[in-house]
């Protein structure tokens, strides 16, 4: 196969995991959304080179909105545009991992403690439903649903903390945290159900200290698993 044809085939293959664009908002915003999610979930891998022409061809759009989107992704720290060398998905780094999850452990613990002190019966029932749904998903081997339910569980804890600043701060860290733990979620997600159940018990008992400890320790233990991914 001629080199040009082979390169085109490889480029097309590297974009196979991309989602379809959502139908709302401007074209650059739509492109940003799907490319950001592809980076977070690993469909576009750390260190992978991105070609504006290939992305434009994949979505049937011109290169102008693609280049605008790539500049925005570069500004947000998801990709790196290297003049004369190309555009690459940013690598995960040990420094960012440690810094990000150090702060996240403290904030997740704080949110869990506040949730234990302030939860309503309705919120408690919804947390219980998510834990039971997670057990059901694990029984069916549905790792994707497990990952979705994990996000829902912690987002509900943030809401149950009834602190808008704390919730907004954790929400702002969510995408960057997913960039790190999404790669290990399929292998560890089933083990997280037990942690969720323990945390649910602490919140049900309104034991703020225990809820804080369980949540913070869970974040720190996750770092150890991710560290191996970053270092290899």
Automatic annotation (TrEMBL):
GO-annotated molecular function: DNA binding; DNA-binding transcription factor activity
Pfam families, per the entry: FCD, GntR
Coiled-coil stretches: 110-137
CDD domains: WHTH_GntR
Keyword field: Coiled coil, DNA-binding, Transcription, Transcription regulation
Keyword Transcription regulation: yes
HTH gntR-type domain residues: 25-92
Domain of life the protein comes from: Bacteria
Matching InterPro entries: GntR_C, TF_FadR/GntR_C, Tscrpt_reg_HTH_GntR, WH-like_DNA-bd_sf, WH_DNA-bd_sf
Transmembrane segments: none
Keyword Coiled coil: yes
Record-given protein name: DNA-binding GntR family transcriptional regulator
UniProt source species: Sphaerisporangium krabiense
Lineage, highest ranks first: Bacteria, Bacillati, Actinomycetota, Actinomycetes, Streptosporangiales
